[in-house]
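Example 3.
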Amino acid sequence: MRLSPQSPENREALLVQRCQSGDVQAFGELIAPYEKKVYNLAYRMSHDAEEAKDLAQEAFVKAYLALSGFRGEASFATWLFRIVTNVCTDALRKRRQHEVISLNRSVETSDGEVVRDLPDPEAGPGEALEHIERQEAVERAVRSLPAEYRIVVVLRDIHGYSYEQIASIAGVNIGTVKSRLNRARQRLKELLQDGELFDSGSVYKTREIRKGGAGV
Amino acid sequence: MNCTQVRDLMSSYLDDALVPSERAEVESHLTKCSACTAELTSLAHVVSLVHALPEVAVPAGFHRSVMAAVAAARRASEAPKARPWARVASFRLARVSLVAAALVLFFGLGMMTGRLLLVPAPGPAAYQPPNAGADTSPDNATVATGNTVGPLGLIQDHLVADTVAGMGRQVTYSAKIDLQVQDVRAAVVRIANVAQATGGYVEQSKITTSWFGRVSAYMKFRVPQANFQSAVDQVGAQGKVVSNEISAQDVTANYVDVTSKLISLQTQEQQLLGLLRQTSSVDDIVKIQKELEDVRSQIETMKGAIQYYDQLVAFSTVEVDISRPLFPWLSSIWAEITGLLNNTRYGYAAMALALPVLLLTGAGVAGRRFKIRLARRGRVSAQVAGNHTGGSEER
């Protein structure tokens, strides 16, 4: 009667079945291996740890409620990440409308994007400090990307998914994945290069945002 | 291929996601164009920077809080639909509810005119788990199967609150299930297994045999909140569920109350200790010591209360009444009547008056059935019928 429990796919399929027949505990086992990835994705797609926690939790609840409709067309992981992606991009889009202006975070205005950069009082030599600063600059740059662009960069360059997987998770075709990824990376490059070039003490910098059709 | 075209493909080139012809064109352009080569290098650098972002750790207690939210969502989503067996049960109940309502009305009116009603009935209190922490909370929400919108709003509020604040609402859940099975003793064993399998423990288990030989049982067990729904479902699967009542009780207020008392007591304790250090008069020292002792014993009480609430929230209570159906139709009338009566002020008195009528009807039907069975048996074998003269129970 039992499928071989060794294979992770079988184990997952069995757990999905148990969840669908109403076993909440099985859901706990099912999601345990994904909690870290899901939380990390939510973290990169949100502003802070608290919001990430809320988003990840919301995504898991949605996944639980939608599980009865899961028929295994995609792998459970892809299916789960599609939900997480939707939850995160929705939240991001909603928030854009009443964005809280915070220091050193990018703000969309009618004449392009303004990045508020504060001179860092702790800036100084020291490799460790530089490393942290660079990391923060990268995080800030990633966070300044619009949701649709941010998700492809996060899925590709942080989570290492293939173009096909990203297309399936984000619900777009591969051409769109390619063009969004290209434009997102170009933009990150501009942001980071500028940051390196004009780092000392500039408070406001206005940048042209490249607008126009996708390249593919 | 010009620079713009190459730059559009650059990101895919880095990921080796180009078809061979495109790839060849990009590469041949790169050998000629130093600007694009520089561009490629910096783009690769950006990718490596993003890739180097560290993985963050999942916050402590994340799994637990997710599972609590999932369990709450499940309750919120399933209760309004009512599970299939609940629908069957309520359909059967509906058929007899008219009769029962008429009976209750009849006896209720009779008693009202007869002024027999001065004794307040214990009512639903008898159905509360003995240590369920009082009905004092105004947020006490009850969802009986078949009930609809009202109380569910509350439960959903709990869900929302649960999700928003990490520490958030402290909600205890309890279920009361009336179960009918063919073999009561076997069901008790199976339900004990359910309790164990869901990580809980049996708090109370009682099997009674009535004077006419009818076996029934009462069980009470506690399960971790995350497994509450699963335990309720598994219990329900053991037999026919006559009634199933799930209540959520918000103890946040009690919790906050006790916690703030504890904090103020601890502040008092510190103040007293400060005084103790300053004073040198023996009289004062004795007084302060006495006061300190008092405060400390109160602190212990508060700590105990917090522990109690923690336990209450961490574990949900499931109570099961198990019996063998007497006669299917009679027991559903019975369930309907007790259900109705439990909600009326005069429940117990009305029940006492209704009882003789029900018993008489029951006895009549039992007698008829017994006769029919005897006749049937007689046709098969007169001897078998002879061996079973005492047995009024069905096999």
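Chain A is about 60% helix and 5% strand. The beta strands of chain A are 106-109, 112-116, 204-207.
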